[in-house]
Design a protein that fits this description.
Layout lengths: L25 H8 L10 H4 L1 H41 L5 H7 L2 H6 L8 H10 L3 H6 L1
């Protein structure tokens, strides 16, 4: 192989050259090419703010409707239970007075469950002293 010495051989020039005084005016030329006003930057949040508020409102409403229905149904059952408890424990009304306030439809809807046996009923009727007086009045 042939020895090659860089100092003795002719140097190869690069194919690219820069014009004279190119880097002296470079920054000035770049600054002239930039736009005079900066573009307005709109963030994702600012652009979609109304849509996000709408989605949040729809989510809140859709979750609150079933909760309100649940609360209302429980409150109606609680009101009926409160009335029954009040009439049972705190009222001075007798059973006869309560029956007077009931309609025929209310009386039909009352489900009477009797766990008393016939013998027990007969024994109570037999032991009752004022039975005849209560039946006639």
């Amino acid at each position: 192989m042939k020895n090659f010495k860089l100092d003795t051989h002719k140097k190869i020039e690069a194919g690219f050259t820069t014009p004279d005084f190119y880097f002296e005016d470079f920054s000035k030329k770049i600054l002239e090419q930039l736009p005079k006003e900066e573009p307005k930057v709109i963030s994702f949040w600012a652009r979609n703010k109304n849509w996000m508020y709408t989605a949040a409102a729809i989510l809140i409403v859709s979750l609150s409707i079933p909760m309100m229905n649940l609360i209302n149904s429980n409150s109606e059952e609680a009101k009926v239970a409160e009335i029954e408890n009040y009439l049972t424990y705190h009222s001075n009304l007798t059973d006869e007075e309560i029956v007077e306030y009931l309609d025929e439809s209310d009386l039909k809807n009352i489900d009477i469950e009797s766990t008393l046996e016939t013998e027990t009923i007969e024994q109570v009727l037999y032991d009752e002293v004022d039975l005849e007086h209560q039946i006639t009045n």
